Amino acid sequence: MAPHRQPAKRLLVAPVLLLAGILAVVITVPRVTDRPAAPLEQLAGLPDVVDADDRQCRRERNGSEPAASPMPVTGARVTSAMMVACPAAFDGRRVRYAGELVGDLLHRDGGAWVLVNDDDYALRYGPLPAHREYRGTNSGLSVWLPTDLLDDITGLGRPNQRGDLVVLDGHVRRTDPDDGGGLSLRADTLQIIRPAQPLTEPLDRPQAILAAASLLAAGVLWTRRERASP
Fold first, then answer.
1. Class in CATH terms, 76-198
2. Cα gap 32→53, rounded to integer Å
3. Which of 58, 69, 70, 113 has its CA 20 to 30 A from that of 127?
4. For 123-143, how does the pLDDT look when each residue is reduced to its tens digit (9 = 90+)?
5. What is the value of pTM for the model shown?
6. What torsion do the CA atoms of 125, 130, 135, 139 make, to the nearest 10 degrees?
């Protein structure tokens, strides 16, 4: 039995070593791949963010509900992070919000819901993996668009496309029953400051070489295993 066990052991060890090698390369390749630094976009028509001092959020002494000071009408925009951090400060208020339309339009009677992201990938650097500027996670807001605003949309963000970058005016709802009780923006105006753009990702040579080498190694191991089978 011993002479037959040794080849079997080698056949078991080889795939393990191959998988370990592939894992090491997968971890290493993104770190050494030469991806260009993302240019910082200068978007004409993008309003400045409202001064944080103009909006204060604090807890009442009983710790139950946050209270907010009145927010002046300045024409500056608010961010999804501001609204998520203190929804009571914006509940029922008319605000200006900007971001990229992404995903799909969820049509309902009288309009459609859409996700509008305002993170750095949407407003400043563009989507990964076309560059190496890692700027945290995606963030955005659920927005209701009435039917008369839908015709202006040229495209939504997808893996092969950047969506319309828009400036929206509307009222915030802290708990919108039509959105499952979530935080939402009921927009009544929409201005496109950059229409949808197609994305073309260049060939990643190191990853292509890795894929070819892995396929070749798998073929060699499979052939050896077939030959060793009785």
1. mainly beta
2. 42
3. 113
4. 887 777 666 667 667 889 999
5. 0.67
6. 80
